[in-house]
Amino acid sequence: MSGAQTDLTLEDTRDGAVLRFAGRLVVAGLAPLERAAAAVKARPGPIALDLSRVEALDTAGAWLLITLRDRLTAEGAQVTIEGTGPAEASLIETVEKALAKIEPAPPAPSGFLNWVAGVGEGVAGAWASFLDLLAFLGVTLARTAGLLVRPWRMRAAPLVHHMQEVGFNAFPIVFLMSFLIGIVLGFQGASQLQQFGAEVFVVTLIAVSLLRELGILLTAIIVAGRSGSAFAASIGSMKIREEIDAMRTLGLDPIEVLVVPRTLALLIMLPVLGFIANMAGLLGGGLMAWIELGVSPGMFVTRLYDTTGVWQLAIGMIKAPFFAIIIAVVGCWQGMLVGGSAESVGQRTTAAVVMAIFAVIIIDAVFSIFFSEMGL
Amino acid sequence: MDGAPAPAAQAVPAERDAIIRVRGLVNRFGTQTVHDGLDLDVMRGEVLGIVGGSGTGKSVLLRTITGLNRPAEGSIEVFGQDVLRVSAEERTEIEKRWGVLFQDGALFSSLTVAQNIMAPMREHLKLPQRLMDALAAMKVTLVGLPSFAGAKFPSELSGGMRKRAGLARALSLEPEIVFLDEPTAGLDPIGAAAFDELIRQLQQSLGLTVFMVTHDLDSLHAICDRIAVLAEKKVLVTGTMADMMEVDHPWVREYFHGPRARAAQGG
Prior knowledge:
The complex is a heterodimer. By secondary structure, chain A is of the alpha/beta class. Chain A is built from 12 helices and 4 strands, in the order E-E-H-E-H-E-H-H-H-H-H-H-H-H-H-H. Chain A has helices at 30-38, 59-74, 86-100, 111-149, 156-167, 171-193, 202-240, 243-249, 254-293, 297-307, 310-337, 342-373, and strands at 6-13, 16-25, 46-57, 78-82. A 4-stranded mixed beta sheet of chain A has the order 1-2-3-4, covered by helices on one side. In chain A, helix 2 (59-74) links the parallel strand 3 and strand 4 (78-82). In chain A, helix 6 packs parallel to helix 9. In chain B, strand 4 (73-78) and strand 5 form a beta hairpin. Chain B is built from 11 helices and 10 strands. Chain B has one domain (18-238): Rossmann fold (3-Layer(aba) Sandwich), CATH 3.40.50.300. In chain B, helix 4 (113-124) runs parallel beside helix 6. In chain B, strands 6-7-8-3-9-10 form a 6-stranded mixed beta sheet. Chain B has a 4-stranded antiparallel beta sheet with strand order 2-1-4-5, sandwiched between helices. Helices cover 42% and strands 24% of the residues of chain B. By secondary structure, chain B is α/β, with parallel strands linked by helices. Classes of the chains: A alpha/beta, B alpha/beta. Chain A binds chain B through residues 26-28, 30-31, 34, 58-60, 63, 67, 87, 90-91, 93-95, 98-99, 101-103, 105, 339-344, and chain B through 109-110, 121, 125-128, 131, 134-135, 137-142, 146-148, 151, 153-156, 171, 173-174, 201-202, 204-207.
């Protein structure tokens, strides 16, 4: 009937119709065979499905025979399966029993209602997860504060390990990024300010934009991408391997063991990284100002002292602990939410980074407005 | 009884139709030799149980035959073809003819059970979605899962159900050989007995050859036609359960005459 290994022929005999299968009735050639079988129409009187020339039969082939038989029977024919050996008969019986156990799937709800329900669940879920995040933040802060009161309970080794991971190992990338940002600021500032002879203000431009905003903000974004994702992935993998459950049964508090060291490590290291970024940015900007505008290093430092107060640095650095806490807490929280599949780790890691960066920018905006209103 | 019936016992079945033929297999990991000149035949249509102490390389043997581990030396013939020396295309053709059930099912966690069963079909067969859905639904109930399990994710199933789902995926391409790695480990005795029964019943009605690594003496009693004992870096002895009782090797005697073995025989 087709190019497949199996042939299906319909013959009318005196005693009724015979549907003869020949060749290999197996899953590999099932699709054309199924089309051929679907074309067979029921007719009054007996129909025999003859398997005596079938060389091989598997469960998919048996499925085809049984569904064909049941369809023809439903259409009013008397169908028998003939020419089976004991092995085939047993196989057909097994598949028949399996098919009898299939229950129809519950009907899917209608499209529009489903959509409305989905939107509702999404909104309720977003609110619930926001509350959950606040609860997690609260527990983490409480445990951290508890450890500060009783410092001998602090786990020094993981703290130092995470400080190295999130802080020390991030030095090169943070330094390089900020240095390049400084160069860009210096270059762009110079070309604009040169137009009205205000070259010397490039120092103020670089210093204020870097120290107040860019240095710490970009550092936080890099750290959110680097460490927030690492927190979510490592805690999530531990969750899947039931290590978190094991900790609970051993009387270890996962928040204290996993979350607090990571949060403290970021709390300590993010300001350090931010400071490094500030210095690297000034270095890059100063270099560019020297090359492009001829502002000598000595001149640069003098202008820096005169125009940029220490408050500009402080306003930037004040934000660092807030960024650190939100990055660490969001990363760990998303890790704890991992459940079931390997894909879930990926989704939660992505969510951790996106949420942390978003939160960092929101917090930065709030601080920016606050300081402006305060006239700083 | 003489302690070395192995050569004689293996020479006889080699005459028959061996579907898997392992010769002179050597597996080394670093300086540690796991297998040293291992020979094994698996006959078409039999259930072969592989037993051995921890670290005797039962799982390594399974992984080597299925191509997950490349041996240092030796030859492995499956369906009469040397799987270590065939081309990549021929290898794929051979792989389509066997199914593997890993210890915890190794289901793809991001797919539902039905999608797991369809995954090999999607890769190797050209079937319309409607047919694959129907076949997957049939496979779900064939391995004794309730039909709603097809829409569930592996993480929503119990350990025993995951094993059944893993078996359904292993049967997805209608294989001739099924490799089972400790199929009843981690199941309660009732679940284990039911799984044994399922394997036996499917093996008979589907005409499968089953290669089973197991520690479960009840399984060995209930469903294995032959048993191969791995010790001293090779297959020490093969034979039926009755043959095992006669073997005079300290480990084999300990294993098949220990208190647990007696309990299994009694039941």
